[in-house]
Protein backbone atom coordinates (compact mmCIF):
# COMPACT_ATOMS: atom_id res chain seq x y z
CA UNK A 1 0.00 0.00 0.00
CA UNK A 2 2.84 2.43 0.76
CA UNK A 3 3.67 3.59 -2.74
CA UNK A 4 4.65 7.26 -2.38
CA UNK A 5 7.79 9.01 -1.21
CA UNK A 6 7.15 12.64 -0.28
CA UNK A 7 9.71 15.45 -0.53
CA UNK A 8 8.75 18.75 1.12
CA UNK A 9 10.62 21.95 2.03
CA UNK A 10 11.68 22.29 5.66
CA UNK A 11 11.93 26.00 6.40
CA UNK A 12 9.57 26.42 9.33
CA UNK A 13 8.91 23.69 11.88
CA UNK A 14 5.34 24.71 12.70
CA UNK A 15 4.14 24.75 9.10
CA UNK A 16 6.14 21.67 8.21
CA UNK A 17 4.60 19.69 11.08
CA UNK A 18 1.10 20.46 9.80
CA UNK A 19 2.01 19.35 6.28
CA UNK A 20 3.60 16.16 7.60
CA UNK A 21 0.47 15.36 9.62
CA UNK A 22 -1.67 15.85 6.51
CA UNK A 23 0.54 13.51 4.49
CA UNK A 24 0.69 10.85 7.20
CA UNK A 25 -3.08 10.54 7.22
CA UNK A 26 -2.76 8.54 4.01
CA UNK A 27 -1.74 4.88 4.10
CA UNK A 28 -0.10 5.40 0.70
CA UNK A 29 2.79 7.44 2.07
CA UNK A 30 5.99 5.45 2.49
CA UNK A 31 8.63 7.99 3.55
CA UNK A 32 8.74 11.74 4.09
CA UNK A 33 11.96 13.59 3.27
CA UNK A 34 12.50 17.16 4.49
CA UNK A 35 14.52 19.33 2.12
CA UNK A 36 16.55 21.77 4.20
CA UNK A 37 18.98 24.49 3.16
CA UNK A 38 20.24 24.92 6.73
CA UNK A 39 21.65 22.60 9.37
CA UNK A 40 20.01 24.43 12.26
CA UNK A 41 16.59 22.78 12.09
CA UNK A 42 15.60 20.14 14.63
CA UNK A 43 14.91 16.55 13.53
CA UNK A 44 11.26 15.54 13.18
CA UNK A 45 10.30 11.98 14.17
CA UNK A 46 9.39 9.74 11.25
CA UNK A 47 11.07 11.99 8.68
CA UNK A 48 14.52 12.15 7.13
CA UNK A 49 16.22 15.53 6.69
CA UNK A 50 18.04 15.99 3.38
CA UNK A 51 20.54 18.85 3.19
CA UNK A 52 20.29 20.69 -0.14
CA UNK A 53 21.85 23.80 -1.63
CA UNK A 54 18.66 25.29 -3.09
CA UNK A 55 15.19 23.83 -3.40
CA UNK A 56 15.17 23.82 -7.22
CA UNK A 57 18.77 23.01 -8.13
CA UNK A 58 20.02 20.09 -10.19
CA UNK A 59 21.82 18.74 -7.13
CA UNK A 60 18.54 18.70 -5.21
CA UNK A 61 16.74 16.89 -8.03
CA UNK A 62 19.57 14.34 -8.14
CA UNK A 63 19.22 13.81 -4.37
CA UNK A 64 15.49 13.27 -4.75
CA UNK A 65 15.86 10.76 -7.57
CA UNK A 66 18.56 8.85 -5.72
CA UNK A 67 16.51 8.62 -2.50
CA UNK A 68 13.21 7.76 -4.18
CA UNK A 69 12.56 4.05 -3.59
CA UNK A 70 8.77 3.91 -3.87
CA UNK A 71 6.88 3.63 -7.18
CA UNK A 72 5.82 7.29 -7.03
CA UNK A 73 7.51 10.49 -5.91
CA UNK A 74 5.61 13.53 -4.60
CA UNK A 75 7.43 16.86 -4.59
CA UNK A 76 5.85 19.86 -2.86
CA UNK A 77 7.56 23.16 -3.63
CA UNK A 78 5.97 25.69 -1.25
CA UNK A 79 7.05 26.41 2.31
CA UNK A 80 3.43 27.05 3.36
CA UNK A 81 1.08 24.36 4.67
CA UNK A 82 -0.11 21.71 2.20
CA UNK A 83 -3.70 20.71 2.84
CA UNK A 84 -4.70 17.61 0.89
CA UNK A 85 -8.25 17.11 -0.33
CA UNK A 86 -10.35 14.05 0.36
CA UNK A 87 -8.48 10.94 -0.89
CA UNK A 88 -6.27 13.26 -2.94
CA UNK A 89 -3.26 10.95 -2.97
CA UNK A 90 -5.46 8.02 -3.95
CA UNK A 91 -6.65 10.06 -6.92
CA UNK A 92 -3.14 11.08 -7.96
CA UNK A 93 -2.03 7.45 -7.75
CA UNK A 94 -5.02 6.11 -9.66
CA UNK A 95 -4.61 8.56 -12.56
CA UNK A 96 -0.85 8.01 -12.67
CA UNK A 97 -1.33 4.26 -12.94
CA UNK A 98 -4.16 4.43 -15.47
CA UNK A 99 -2.34 6.83 -17.80
CA UNK A 100 1.24 5.62 -17.23
CA UNK A 101 2.07 9.32 -16.94
CA UNK A 102 5.53 10.59 -16.18
CA UNK A 103 4.00 13.30 -14.02
CA UNK A 104 0.51 14.15 -12.79
CA UNK A 105 -0.67 17.53 -11.52
CA UNK A 106 -4.06 18.93 -10.52
CA UNK A 107 -6.14 22.03 -10.01
CA UNK A 108 -6.05 23.39 -6.48
CA UNK A 109 -7.55 25.85 -4.04
CA UNK A 110 -5.59 28.98 -3.25
CA UNK A 111 -5.78 31.00 -0.05
CA UNK A 112 -4.85 34.68 -0.28
CA UNK A 113 -5.48 36.88 2.76
CA UNK A 114 -7.67 34.16 4.35
CA UNK A 115 -9.87 33.95 1.24
CA UNK A 116 -10.12 30.59 -0.51
CA UNK A 117 -10.60 30.57 -4.27
CA UNK A 118 -10.47 28.06 -7.12
CA UNK A 119 -7.26 27.89 -9.14
CA UNK A 120 -7.94 25.86 -12.30
CA UNK A 121 -4.88 24.98 -14.38
CA UNK A 122 -4.49 24.26 -18.09
CA UNK A 123 -3.54 21.09 -19.95
CA UNK A 124 0.11 20.52 -20.73
CA UNK A 125 0.97 20.26 -24.42
CA UNK A 126 4.19 19.96 -26.37
CA UNK A 127 4.46 23.73 -26.60
CA UNK A 128 4.20 24.20 -22.84
CA UNK A 129 7.95 24.77 -22.60
CA UNK A 130 7.89 28.13 -20.81
CA UNK A 131 9.53 27.88 -17.42
CA UNK A 132 6.64 29.64 -15.66
CA UNK A 133 3.99 27.11 -16.75
CA UNK A 134 1.79 26.69 -13.68
CA UNK A 135 1.62 23.07 -12.52
CA UNK A 136 0.70 24.19 -9.02
CA UNK A 137 3.07 23.32 -6.21
CA UNK A 138 2.44 19.56 -6.03
CA UNK A 139 4.26 17.39 -8.58
CA UNK A 140 3.42 13.67 -8.65
CA UNK A 141 6.11 11.76 -10.59
CA UNK A 142 6.58 8.20 -11.71
CA UNK A 143 9.77 7.17 -9.93
CA UNK A 144 10.60 4.79 -12.78
CA UNK A 145 10.62 7.69 -15.25
CA UNK A 146 12.73 9.80 -12.88
CA UNK A 147 15.30 7.02 -12.65
CA UNK A 148 15.44 6.82 -16.46
CA UNK A 149 16.15 10.53 -16.93
CA UNK A 150 18.73 10.74 -14.14
CA UNK A 151 21.64 9.85 -16.41
CA UNK A 152 20.60 12.56 -18.88
CA UNK A 153 20.57 15.38 -16.31
CA UNK A 154 24.22 16.23 -16.92
CA UNK A 155 23.99 20.03 -16.73
CA UNK A 156 24.28 21.49 -13.24
CA UNK A 157 21.77 24.25 -12.54
CA UNK A 158 21.33 26.32 -9.42
CA UNK A 159 17.87 27.58 -10.35
CA UNK A 160 16.66 25.48 -13.31
CA UNK A 161 16.93 21.97 -11.86
CA UNK A 162 13.19 21.39 -11.37
CA UNK A 163 12.45 22.93 -14.78
CA UNK A 164 15.10 20.77 -16.45
CA UNK A 165 13.71 17.66 -14.77
CA UNK A 166 10.14 18.14 -15.96
CA UNK A 167 11.34 18.90 -19.50
CA UNK A 168 13.24 15.62 -19.56
CA UNK A 169 10.27 13.75 -18.11
CA UNK A 170 8.10 15.15 -20.92
CA UNK A 171 10.51 13.64 -23.46
CA UNK A 172 9.73 10.13 -22.17
CA UNK A 173 6.18 10.23 -20.90
CA UNK A 174 3.01 12.30 -20.74
CA UNK A 175 2.31 15.05 -18.22
CA UNK A 176 -1.32 14.62 -17.18
CA UNK A 177 -3.60 17.29 -15.78
CA UNK A 178 -6.37 16.26 -13.37
CA UNK A 179 -9.22 18.77 -13.65
CA UNK A 180 -10.10 18.38 -9.97
CA UNK A 181 -9.22 20.48 -6.91
CA UNK A 182 -7.10 18.04 -4.94
CA UNK A 183 -5.26 20.28 -2.49
CA UNK A 184 -5.06 23.75 -0.95
CA UNK A 185 -2.03 26.02 -0.74
CA UNK A 186 -1.43 29.48 0.71
CA UNK A 187 -0.25 32.22 -1.68
CA UNK A 188 1.37 35.44 -0.46
CA UNK A 189 1.80 37.09 -3.87
CA UNK A 190 -1.47 38.98 -4.35
CA UNK A 191 -0.32 41.29 -7.16
CA UNK A 192 -2.52 41.80 -10.20
CA UNK A 193 -1.74 39.89 -13.40
CA UNK A 194 -0.36 43.00 -15.07
CA UNK A 195 2.13 43.48 -12.23
CA UNK A 196 3.45 39.91 -12.38
CA UNK A 197 3.90 39.48 -16.11
CA UNK A 198 7.28 41.24 -16.32
CA UNK A 199 9.02 39.35 -13.50
CA UNK A 200 11.02 37.29 -15.95
CA UNK A 201 12.68 40.37 -17.48
CA UNK A 202 13.54 41.98 -14.15
CA UNK A 203 17.35 42.44 -14.13
CA UNK A 204 17.62 40.85 -10.70
CA UNK A 205 16.39 37.58 -12.22
CA UNK A 206 18.96 37.59 -15.04
CA UNK A 207 21.03 34.66 -13.73
CA UNK A 208 17.87 32.60 -13.39
CA UNK A 209 16.88 33.39 -16.96
CA UNK A 210 20.28 32.39 -18.36
CA UNK A 211 19.94 28.97 -16.74
CA UNK A 212 16.37 28.55 -17.92
CA UNK A 213 17.46 29.35 -21.47
CA UNK A 214 20.19 26.69 -21.35
CA UNK A 215 17.75 24.07 -20.09
CA UNK A 216 15.15 24.94 -22.73
CA UNK A 217 17.72 24.94 -25.54
CA UNK A 218 18.95 21.53 -24.45
CA UNK A 219 15.35 20.28 -24.52
CA UNK A 220 14.70 21.65 -28.02
CA UNK A 221 17.81 19.89 -29.28
CA UNK A 222 16.65 16.62 -27.71
CA UNK A 223 13.23 16.75 -29.41
CA UNK A 224 14.53 17.95 -32.79
CA UNK A 225 13.08 21.48 -32.65
CA UNK A 226 16.29 23.45 -32.20
CA UNK A 227 17.20 25.83 -35.02
CA UNK A 228 20.83 26.69 -35.70
CA UNK A 229 21.61 30.38 -36.41
CA UNK A 230 21.23 30.16 -40.19
CA UNK A 231 18.89 32.75 -41.71
CA UNK A 232 17.47 33.74 -45.08
CA UNK A 233 18.86 36.90 -46.63
CA UNK A 234 16.37 39.77 -46.93
CA UNK A 235 16.29 41.69 -50.22
CA UNK A 236 14.99 45.19 -49.56
CA UNK A 237 15.55 46.44 -53.10
CA UNK A 238 13.17 44.21 -55.02
CA UNK A 239 10.00 46.10 -54.08
CA UNK A 240 8.62 49.61 -54.50
CA UNK A 241 6.60 51.54 -51.95
CA UNK A 242 5.50 55.17 -51.85
CA UNK A 243 6.45 55.36 -48.17
CA UNK A 244 9.50 53.85 -46.53
CA UNK A 245 7.57 53.20 -43.31
CA UNK A 246 4.05 53.17 -41.95
CA UNK A 247 3.10 53.29 -38.30
CA UNK A 248 0.11 50.99 -37.68
CA UNK A 249 -2.29 51.74 -34.82
CA UNK A 250 -5.38 49.52 -34.33
CA UNK A 251 -7.78 51.28 -32.00
CA UNK A 252 -11.17 50.92 -30.39
CA UNK A 253 -12.49 53.34 -27.76
CA UNK A 254 -9.25 54.99 -26.66
CA UNK A 255 -10.31 58.62 -26.60
CA UNK A 256 -8.19 59.17 -23.48
CA UNK A 257 -4.94 58.14 -25.13
CA UNK A 258 -5.13 58.11 -28.94
CA UNK A 259 -4.22 61.80 -29.19
CA UNK A 260 -0.92 61.24 -27.35
CA UNK A 261 -0.11 58.27 -29.59
CA UNK A 262 -0.78 60.27 -32.76
CA UNK A 263 1.31 63.22 -31.59
CA UNK A 264 4.27 60.97 -30.81
CA UNK A 265 4.20 59.72 -34.41
CA UNK A 266 3.86 63.14 -36.03
CA UNK A 267 6.86 64.40 -34.04
CA UNK A 268 9.19 61.81 -35.63
CA UNK A 269 12.23 63.12 -37.50
CA UNK A 270 13.41 60.91 -40.36
CA UNK A 271 15.36 61.05 -43.60
CA UNK A 272 12.54 59.17 -45.36
CA UNK A 273 8.81 59.58 -45.95
CA UNK A 274 6.42 57.86 -43.56
CA UNK A 275 2.72 57.86 -42.80
CA UNK A 276 0.39 56.81 -39.99
CA UNK A 277 -2.36 54.26 -40.65
CA UNK A 278 -5.02 54.12 -37.93
CA UNK A 279 -7.49 51.25 -38.15
CA UNK A 280 -10.50 52.43 -36.17
CA UNK A 281 -12.44 49.33 -35.14
CA UNK A 282 -15.86 51.04 -34.80
CA UNK A 283 -15.10 53.23 -31.79
CA UNK A 284 -18.05 54.73 -29.93
CA UNK A 285 -16.42 57.01 -27.32
CA UNK A 286 -15.24 59.91 -29.46
CA UNK A 287 -12.03 58.25 -30.68
CA UNK A 288 -13.14 58.47 -34.33
CA UNK A 289 -13.82 62.19 -34.07
CA UNK A 290 -10.39 62.83 -32.53
CA UNK A 291 -8.68 60.93 -35.35
CA UNK A 292 -10.62 62.96 -37.92
CA UNK A 293 -9.48 66.19 -36.30
CA UNK A 294 -5.83 65.19 -36.61
CA UNK A 295 -6.29 63.83 -40.15
CA UNK A 296 -7.81 67.15 -41.27
CA UNK A 297 -4.55 68.93 -40.50
CA UNK A 298 -1.96 66.33 -41.59
CA UNK A 299 -2.18 64.33 -44.82
CA UNK A 300 0.15 61.64 -43.45
CA UNK A 301 -2.69 60.31 -41.30
CA UNK A 302 -4.78 57.58 -42.96
CA UNK A 303 -7.99 56.85 -41.05
CA UNK A 304 -9.38 53.43 -42.02
CA UNK A 305 -12.59 51.81 -40.81
CA UNK A 306 -12.76 48.05 -41.56
CA UNK A 307 -15.46 46.69 -43.85
CA UNK A 308 -16.09 43.77 -41.53
CA UNK A 309 -16.97 43.64 -37.84
CA UNK A 310 -15.31 40.39 -36.77
CA UNK A 311 -11.79 41.72 -36.43
CA UNK A 312 -9.51 41.62 -33.44
CA UNK A 313 -6.25 43.52 -33.16
CA UNK A 314 -4.56 41.13 -35.56
CA UNK A 315 -7.33 41.49 -38.11
CA UNK A 316 -7.03 45.28 -37.93
CA UNK A 317 -3.31 44.94 -38.55
CA UNK A 318 -4.09 42.95 -41.71
CA UNK A 319 -6.34 45.79 -42.90
CA UNK A 320 -3.53 48.29 -42.45
CA UNK A 321 -0.73 46.15 -43.85
CA UNK A 322 -2.67 45.10 -46.96
CA UNK A 323 -3.79 48.67 -47.60
CA UNK A 324 -2.26 50.39 -50.61
CA UNK A 325 -1.12 53.10 -48.17
CA UNK A 326 1.27 50.80 -46.30
CA UNK A 327 4.98 51.47 -46.60
CA UNK A 328 7.93 49.10 -46.94
CA UNK A 329 8.15 48.68 -43.17
CA UNK A 330 5.09 48.37 -40.90
CA UNK A 331 5.85 49.66 -37.40
CA UNK A 332 3.70 49.03 -34.32
CA UNK A 333 2.31 51.52 -31.87
CA UNK A 334 -0.46 50.68 -29.41
CA UNK A 335 -3.23 53.21 -29.02
CA UNK A 336 -2.45 53.92 -25.36
CA UNK A 337 1.34 54.16 -25.69
CA UNK A 338 3.81 56.66 -27.15
CA UNK A 339 7.24 56.64 -28.75
CA UNK A 340 10.16 57.55 -26.49
CA UNK A 341 11.35 60.48 -28.62
CA UNK A 342 11.46 61.82 -32.18
CA UNK A 343 14.15 59.34 -33.31
CA UNK A 344 12.28 56.05 -32.88
CA UNK A 345 11.26 55.47 -36.51
CA UNK A 346 14.71 56.34 -37.83
CA UNK A 347 16.38 53.89 -35.43
CA UNK A 348 14.00 51.10 -36.39
CA UNK A 349 14.35 51.53 -40.14
CA UNK A 350 18.14 51.79 -39.83
CA UNK A 351 18.14 48.50 -37.91
CA UNK A 352 16.42 46.66 -40.76
CA UNK A 353 19.24 47.52 -43.13
CA UNK A 354 22.18 47.24 -40.74
CA UNK A 355 21.06 43.85 -39.32
CA UNK A 356 19.50 42.47 -42.54
CA UNK A 357 16.38 41.31 -40.75
CA UNK A 358 12.72 40.90 -41.65
CA UNK A 359 11.50 41.97 -38.20
CA UNK A 360 12.82 44.40 -35.60
CA UNK A 361 11.97 44.43 -31.90
CA UNK A 362 12.88 47.37 -29.70
CA UNK A 363 12.90 47.98 -25.97
CA UNK A 364 10.45 49.96 -23.88
CA UNK A 365 10.03 51.67 -20.54
CA UNK A 366 7.13 50.92 -18.19
CA UNK A 367 5.29 54.05 -17.06
CA UNK A 368 2.09 55.01 -15.31
CA UNK A 369 -0.68 56.85 -17.14
CA UNK A 370 1.16 60.15 -16.68
CA UNK A 371 4.26 58.62 -18.32
CA UNK A 372 6.31 58.52 -15.12
CA UNK A 373 8.63 55.50 -14.98
CA UNK A 374 7.45 52.61 -12.79
CA UNK A 375 9.02 49.26 -11.87
CA UNK A 376 10.62 47.35 -13.46
CA UNK A 377 11.49 50.31 -15.71
CA UNK A 378 13.33 49.35 -18.90
CA UNK A 379 12.18 46.12 -20.57
CA UNK A 380 15.01 45.32 -22.97
CA UNK A 381 14.59 41.55 -23.48
CA UNK A 382 18.33 40.98 -23.45
CA UNK A 383 17.58 37.28 -23.35
CA UNK A 384 17.26 37.63 -27.11
CA UNK A 385 20.61 36.92 -28.74
CA UNK A 386 21.46 36.65 -32.43
CA UNK A 387 22.63 33.06 -32.02
CA UNK A 388 19.87 31.65 -29.84
CA UNK A 389 17.04 34.18 -29.73
CA UNK A 390 14.65 32.22 -31.90
CA UNK A 391 15.04 29.14 -29.69
CA UNK A 392 14.73 31.03 -26.43
CA UNK A 393 11.64 32.75 -27.86
CA UNK A 394 9.78 29.47 -27.31
CA UNK A 395 10.44 29.69 -23.57
CA UNK A 396 9.29 33.24 -22.89
CA UNK A 397 5.85 34.81 -23.19
CA UNK A 398 6.72 37.88 -25.26
CA UNK A 399 9.41 39.34 -27.48
CA UNK A 400 9.22 43.03 -26.61
CA UNK A 401 8.08 46.25 -28.27
CA UNK A 402 7.82 48.18 -30.45
CA UNK A 403 7.69 45.59 -33.20
CA UNK A 404 8.27 46.31 -36.87
CA UNK A 405 8.00 44.14 -39.97
CA UNK A 406 9.23 44.05 -43.56
CA UNK A 407 5.86 44.47 -45.25
CA UNK A 408 6.24 41.99 -48.17
CA UNK A 409 6.98 39.15 -45.72
CA UNK A 410 4.21 40.20 -43.33
CA UNK A 411 1.72 40.31 -46.21
CA UNK A 412 2.70 36.77 -47.09
CA UNK A 413 2.46 35.43 -43.55
CA UNK A 414 -0.69 37.33 -42.41
CA UNK A 415 -1.45 38.30 -38.83
CA UNK A 416 -3.64 35.94 -36.73
CA UNK A 417 -7.03 37.58 -36.21
CA UNK A 418 -6.89 37.65 -32.42
CA UNK A 419 -6.57 40.35 -29.79
CA UNK A 420 -3.95 38.56 -27.73
CA UNK A 421 -0.73 36.79 -28.71
CA UNK A 422 -0.88 37.73 -32.39
CA UNK A 423 2.44 39.58 -32.10
CA UNK A 424 4.07 36.62 -30.38
CA UNK A 425 2.85 34.26 -33.10
CA UNK A 426 4.39 36.54 -35.72
CA UNK A 427 7.69 36.68 -33.86
CA UNK A 428 7.96 32.89 -33.75
CA UNK A 429 6.99 32.57 -37.41
CA UNK A 430 9.41 35.25 -38.60
CA UNK A 431 12.26 33.85 -36.51
CA UNK A 432 11.84 30.40 -38.05
CA UNK A 433 13.45 31.68 -41.26
CA UNK A 434 14.64 35.23 -40.69
CA UNK A 435 16.86 37.06 -38.29
CA UNK A 436 14.97 39.34 -35.91
CA UNK A 437 16.83 42.60 -35.33
CA UNK A 438 17.08 43.98 -31.83
CA UNK A 439 17.39 47.50 -30.44
CA UNK A 440 18.20 47.60 -26.73
CA UNK A 441 17.64 51.34 -26.28
CA UNK A 442 14.23 52.39 -25.00
CA UNK A 443 12.08 53.37 -27.99
CA UNK A 444 8.67 53.28 -26.43
CA UNK A 445 6.75 54.27 -23.31
CA UNK A 446 4.33 51.52 -22.31
CA UNK A 447 1.63 53.04 -20.14
CA UNK A 448 0.04 50.88 -17.44
CA UNK A 449 -3.45 51.86 -16.37
CA UNK A 450 -6.66 50.15 -15.37
CA UNK A 451 -7.96 49.96 -18.95
CA UNK A 452 -4.96 48.02 -20.29
CA UNK A 453 -6.19 44.73 -21.76
CA UNK A 454 -3.93 42.73 -19.42
CA UNK A 455 -3.93 44.98 -16.34
CA UNK A 456 -5.99 42.71 -14.13
CA UNK A 457 -7.09 39.39 -15.61
CA UNK A 458 -9.09 36.75 -13.77
CA UNK A 459 -7.78 33.19 -13.79
CA UNK A 460 -10.13 32.06 -16.56
CA UNK A 461 -8.91 34.78 -18.93
CA UNK A 462 -5.28 34.18 -17.98
CA UNK A 463 -5.69 30.47 -18.66
CA UNK A 464 -7.23 31.20 -22.06
CA UNK A 465 -4.30 33.46 -22.94
CA UNK A 466 -1.72 30.97 -21.75
CA UNK A 467 -3.41 28.07 -23.55
CA UNK A 468 -3.38 30.05 -26.78
CA UNK A 469 0.30 30.90 -26.51
CA UNK A 470 1.13 27.30 -25.64
CA UNK A 471 -0.79 26.22 -28.74
CA UNK A 472 1.22 28.70 -30.83
CA UNK A 473 4.39 27.15 -29.42
CA UNK A 474 3.14 23.65 -30.10
CA UNK A 475 2.43 24.47 -33.74
CA UNK A 476 5.81 26.16 -34.07
CA UNK A 477 7.67 23.23 -32.54
CA UNK A 478 5.95 20.85 -34.96
CA UNK A 479 6.89 23.13 -37.88
CA UNK A 480 10.49 23.38 -36.74
CA UNK A 481 10.77 19.61 -36.42
CA UNK A 482 9.54 19.26 -39.97
CA UNK A 483 11.97 21.93 -41.14
CA UNK A 484 14.87 20.07 -39.54
CA UNK A 485 13.80 16.79 -41.14
CA UNK A 486 13.81 18.45 -44.54
Descriptors:
486 residues, alpha/beta, Spore Coat Polysaccharide Biosynthesis Protein SpsA, Chain A, 2 domains, 9-stranded mixed sheet, 23% strand, elongated
Topology of helices and strands:
Layout: E1 4-9, H1 13-24, E2 29-36, E3 47-51, H2 58-67, E4 72-76, E5 83-84, H3 88-99, E6 103-112, E7 115-119, E8 138-142, H4 143-149, H5 161-172, E9 175-186, H6 193-196, H7 206-223, E10 245-251, H8 258-266, E11 274-280, H9 287-295, E12 301-304, H10 313-321, E13 329-332, E14 338-339, H11 344-355, E15 359-367, E16 373-379, H12 389-392, E17 403-406, H13 407-413, H14 422-433, E18 436-447, H15 459-485
Helix pairs in contact: 2-5, 5-7, 14-15
**CATH fold node name of the largest domain:** Spore Coat Polysaccharide Biosynthesis Protein SpsA, Chain A
Q: Give unreliable regions as ranges.
A: 193-197
**Major beta sheet, specifics?**
9 strands, mixed
CATH class of the largest domain: Alpha Beta
Mean pLDDT: 94
Radius of gyration from the alpha-carbon trace, in angstroms: 25 Å
CATH architecture of the largest domain: Alpha-Beta Complex
Distance between the termini: 50 Å
In total, the number of domains comes to 2
Amino acid sequence: MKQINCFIPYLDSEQTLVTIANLQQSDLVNKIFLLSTTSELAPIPGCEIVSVDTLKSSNTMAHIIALADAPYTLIYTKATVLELGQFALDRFLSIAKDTQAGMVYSDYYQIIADKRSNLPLIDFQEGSVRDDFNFGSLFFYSTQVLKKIATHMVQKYEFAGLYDMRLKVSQLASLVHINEYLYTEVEFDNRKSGEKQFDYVDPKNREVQIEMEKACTEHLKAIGAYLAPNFKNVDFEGCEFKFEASVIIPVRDRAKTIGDAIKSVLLQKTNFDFNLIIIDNFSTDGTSELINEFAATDSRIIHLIPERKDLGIGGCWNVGVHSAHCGKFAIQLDSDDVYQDENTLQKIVDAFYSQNCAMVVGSYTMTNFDMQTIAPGLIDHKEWTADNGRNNALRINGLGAPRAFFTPVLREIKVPNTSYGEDYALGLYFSRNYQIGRIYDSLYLCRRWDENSDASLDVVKMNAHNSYKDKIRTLEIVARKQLNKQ
